[in-house]
Design brief:
Blueprint (H helix, E strand, L loop, with lengths): L19 E3 L5 E3 L2 H19 L4 E4 L6 H15 L4 E2 L7 H11 L8 H5 L3 E5 L3 H4 L1 H12 L3 E5 L12 E3 L6 H14 L5 H7 E2 L1 H8 L4 H8 L3 H13 L3 E5 L1 H4 L4 H15 L8 E4 L6 H6 L6 E2 L3 E2 L3 H11 L11 H10 L4 E5 L3 H4 L3 H9 L3 E6 L11 E4 L9 E4 L4 E5 L12 H11 L9 H11 L8 H7 L2 E2 L22 H4 L3 E2 L18 E6 L24 E3 L1 H7 L6 E5 L4 E8 L7 E5 L28 E7 L14
Parallel strand pairs: 3-4, 3-13, 5-6, 5-9, 6-7, 8-19, 9-10, 13-14, 14-15, 20-24, 21-23
Antiparallel strand pairs: 1-2, 1-15, 11-12, 16-17, 17-18, 20-25, 22-23, 22-25
């Protein structure tokens, strides 16, 4: 066990204020901008000259502006010539994008935040929004105060569940059986919106057949949720005039995550809770610009405006605008790029604002892969663990206060970001850095200001065409789609599905019959506890940005256990124990939480320098979206005093 797991003082990451280049001695040394940019460009050129453009990968930043993400993906496709670009969307909501786009043709949430305040029923499925999305949760509370009922579906009785009319505590990884049982009950009770299903959807018969085996009794046996509670949720959702179905990483961080998302979308199609004011589907984004990163094309299969690379007319539009040829095939996503590094086919990575060395599942494996690269350039505001592995480190600006531009939130609202302070030391704006690198690689890009980038984006993305900076300021943000400068569109998407005219109604929304697939990491006598992960209110992601600031709520990392499990293991609150999975082990103090049921443990990823939780998580990924199963590891607990002579661990499974 590494000694650092015993250090309970959160690490403070230093702000990057000058470029760094790795020297002949293997260490990072201070360099001039000219030296650093030359070294970065030289490495990229050597890679593409020797191995071709597809040996390059771009990790773009979901915390940076839309404008930066637009330029980053353009750099990847035009300067390098590959579609290998992705972002942390892959570790969180790529399944939401995949599921929504498969059904509706676009990957954004279908409603506005204001509609949550005006709805009749709110279902929070796999979402502790009170801690993970506190701003959105204020809208939820307004909805509750306005008379909305709320149901919380979550393995833990979270702070969000405390506000619910009913908490459905399902076993981890059984979301599809529960959703199918809800759907079956709606069908058998005659509560489906038959007119909507008939006019606006396809695949209903196949869906009905898929859910038929999931009776209330069968679902209770698999999910652990009482049949009566499942029935209550089904009837409440189906009979509500307006209903919002919200989810976060409790749905998406699974090996079958896209299927999970499709199972929830099916419920909205079955009841007609989509395409109307107050009724919709809300995937809640954790980073400030996860939605915008995807919208700007910083993903391997879509160009800006969420336009499919495989469509010739789409490629032609961008090739004309950029005077470049775009590969007529999808690039590699983040998961596939990491696999490519291991296979030796991906040789160079440009990592902007991401920290995969600490954020990826089974992260020791990720570190080994990053070390195997021929060339790694990291552009960031902090000297992260990933930056410490780089050949070149470029100090960038903080998007939220040192940069001009825009971001896009979970309700598809594009909002202005304004520069308040100058970056410290020699740190520079991300777009300026990208342009300097592009010039060294033969592309003389000049963007005088962020608005020039935005206007270029508006010219190629119909969904953003009507969003001038002036209009964004006038309306305090605008939701896409906004194709015209003369009007604003409805706050909800897919209203076309309710049109009487089939031509106006357009393509039908397809049900997605999916099958239950239990967690990959099996429980057994050696690893009898199910570990799930999540967030706490006081901290942010891997702690790089938040650990340097004090919080009266912060208590560092713990292994949270139910009172029953703590008693069975004979461990006390605050006692340090070893937590082990099939991939690694860490030492963490025990925190006893009455909101956990026996057999379920909880940890966060916020303090990897104290307790590196991602040594425990499993790298099993969704084959469609590439998102890892952070929510379902199998672990055991060992008392440190008895670790040398461990007795059999009692199983609560």
């Amino acid at each position: 066990m590494k000694d650092r797991n015993r250090n309970r003082t959160p690490k403070q990451y230093p702000r990057l204020t000058h470029p760094l280049v790795r020297g002949a001695d293997g260490e990072l040394h201070r360099a001039t901008w000219e030296e650093a940019l030359d070294a970065a460009a030289r490495g990229f050129a050597a890679t593409t000259d020797t191995h071709g453009p597809d040996a390059f990968g771009m990790f773009s930043c979901a915390r940076s502006t839309n404008e930066m993400n637009y330029v980053a993906q353009k750099f990847t496709r035009v300067v390098i010539g590959t579609n290998n670009v992705d972002s942390c969307n892959r570790t969180c909501h790529a399944p939401s994008v995949a599921g929504l786009s498969a059904v509706f043709g676009s990957g954004g949430g279908t409603s506005s935040y204001a509609e949550v305040e005006e709805t009749d029923l709110i279902v929070m499925w796999g979402s502790n929004a009170r801690f993970a999305h506190p701003i959105f949760f204020q809208h939820v509370l307004k909805g509750i105060r306005n008379g909305a009922r709320m149901y919380a579906v979550d393995p833990r009785r979270t702070g969000t569940a405390e506000w619910a009319d009913r908490w459905l505590g399902l076993d981890v990884g059984t979301d599809i059986p529960l959703a199918h049982a809800v759907g079956r009950e709606i069908i058998h009770a005659g509560l489906a919106n038959a007119a909507f299903v008939e006019r606006a959807t396809s695949g209903y018969e196949e869906y009905a057949a898929a859910v038929e085996p999931w009776t209330l009794a069968a679902a209770e046996q698999v999910t652990g949720v009482p049949a009566e509670a499942i029935r209550e949720l089904a009837h409440a959702y189906a009979t509500a005039e307006r209903a919002q179905l919200c989810w976060t990483l409790g749905i998406t961080e699974h090996h079958n995550a896209t299927d999970n998302v499709r199972a929830l979308i099916n419920l909205a199609l079955l009841t007609g809770h989509v395409g109307r004011h107050g009724s919709g589907l809300q995937p809640l984004r954790g980073q400030n610009n996860v939605q915008g990163g995807g919208d700007m094309g910083a993903i391997p299969n879509r160009l800006p405006g969420f336009q499919d690379i495989l469509q010739p007319a789409v490629r032609e539009r961008f090739e004309t605008a950029w005077d470049a040829v775009i590969q007529p095939r999808y690039g590699l996503n983040l998961t596939e790029m990491l696999d490519g590094i291991e296979r030796g086919t991906l040789k160079a990575v440009y990592c902007i604002g991401e920290n995969p060395a600490q954020s990826e599942a089974d992260n020791e494996h990720t570190v080994q892969r990053l070390r195997a690269l021929d060339h790694l350039v990291v552009q960031d505001i902090f000297l992260t663990k990933t930056a410490l592995l780089a050949d070149v480190v470029l100090p960038a600006s903080a998007a939220w206060c040192e940069t001009e531009g825009t971001t896009t939130n979970s309700e598809r609202r594009v909002q202005r970001v304004r520069k308040a302070v100058r970056p410290p030391g020699e740190a520079r704006d991300d777009i300026d850095i990208l342009c300097d690198l592009a010039r060294r690689l033969g592309h003389d890009w000049k963007y005088g200001e962020a608005q020039e980038v935005w206007d270029e984006l508006r010219a190629v993305s119909p969904d953003h065409a009507g969003m001038t900076y002036a209009r964004l300021e006038e309306h305090q943000g605008i939701q896409w789609p906004c194709p015209s400068e003369d009007r604003l569109e409805p706050t909800y998407l897919h209203g076309r599905l309710w049109e009487a005219d089939p031509q106006r109604r357009g393509v039908r929304a397809a049900f997605g019959p999916v099958l239950h697939s239990p967690p990959v990491d099996l429980l057994d006598d050696e690893y009898p506890l199910r570990l799930t992960t999540g967030r706490r209110l006081d901290s942010y992601n891997t702690g790089v940005q938040s650990s340097g600031f004090a919080s009266p709520l912060r208590r560092g990392e713990n292994i949270e256990l139910s009172p029953e499990d703590a008693a069975a293991y004979g461990v006390a609150h605050g006692e340090e124990v070893r937590v082990s999975s099939r991939r690694g082990s860490v030492v963490a103090p025990v925190w006893i939480d009455a909101g956990l049921r026996p057999g379920l443990a909880f940890m966060t990823l916020h303090f990897p320098d104290e307790v590196d939780t991602n040594q425990l998580t499993i790298e099993a990924t969704c084959p469609i979206a590439g998102t890892a199963e952070y929510k379902a590891a199998a672990v055991r607990i060992d008392r440190l005093t008895a670790a040398a002579d461990r007795q059999a661990v009692p199983s609560w499974t």
